Amino acid sequence: RATTGGSGGAEALADEDVALSRELVAADPGRLDWKEGLTVSLSRLSDLRASAGRGAEAEALTEEDIALSRELVAVDPERRDWRRDLTVSLNRLIDLRLLSAGNLVPRATAEESLALRRGLWEEEPDEPAAIYSLVVGLDTLARVRVEDGEVNLAQECLDEAESLWLRLSASRREAPHKRLEEARMLALRASLEPKSPKANGWLKEAQQILEAQGDRGNLVFKLLSVRRDIRKAERAVKAAKGEAKAEEPEAPEVL
Fold it and tell me: What's the Rg (C-alpha) of the chain?
């Protein structure tokens, strides 16, 4: 799904797009192409709301998107694109919850997303897009398991994600959104092994990747999410090395 970054003008256009798409679906609920169009519009507007710091609104839009996407998948489970779109929306909900300090982390959502991604990968195990999608699903579930205190299970997910990541060619790992996923994995590795002598190096590399992306409009929401993961890992490393007396309360990330 293509998304756009966050000016007020873009939000206004996206609001209008969602309103029109909702009218079309209401006029003829049986038109699957209109439902698909509405999910795309909701996805775009959700990213814009999240980038503008309006997390609650972004969550509501994403939940509407997920409900429609599940309907589409139920009608035709063989449509790989619909299953793939559903995983993207599920992961957005997870990231929104993780970005909002204190919100319940939806573990079942992460497991649903991973199951869909693994199914897509098993159908085409050599397809780079399917490999990368599974990496994202594993990394996401690992982060959720860290939140639940299940460090060993998180480690298993990250180990598999890193192994799959290395199956992608170097050129395929250079796309900005994929580089950000690499930064996220480095931060997670530091969180899981905060006493490792390599922890600060992992964090430094993750930060360098983040800074290299700038403020790309179509990546603003992911930039926020990865920045949050790096900050969390930095606190874990400092605490493990006795550089922090107590864990500081986590605040929501903002631009």
Answer: 18
User: What is the distance between the alpha carbons of residues 213 and 219, in angstroms, rounded to a whole number?
Assistant: 9
What is the reported pTM?
Answer: 0.88
What is the distance between the alpha carbons of residues 187 and 161, in angstroms, rounded to a whole number?
13
Separation between Cα atoms, residue 72 and residue 65, nearest integer Å: 11
CB 189 within 8 A of CB 151: no
Cα 201 to Cα 218: distance, rounded to the nearest angstrom: 28
Residue with tokens 């309103």: 19
**pLDDT tens for residues 80-106?**
999 999 999 999 999 998 888 655 777
CA atoms within 13 A on the CB side of 231: 17
CB 154 within 8 A of CB 192: yes
Nearest-angstrom CA–CA distance, 115 and 120: 9
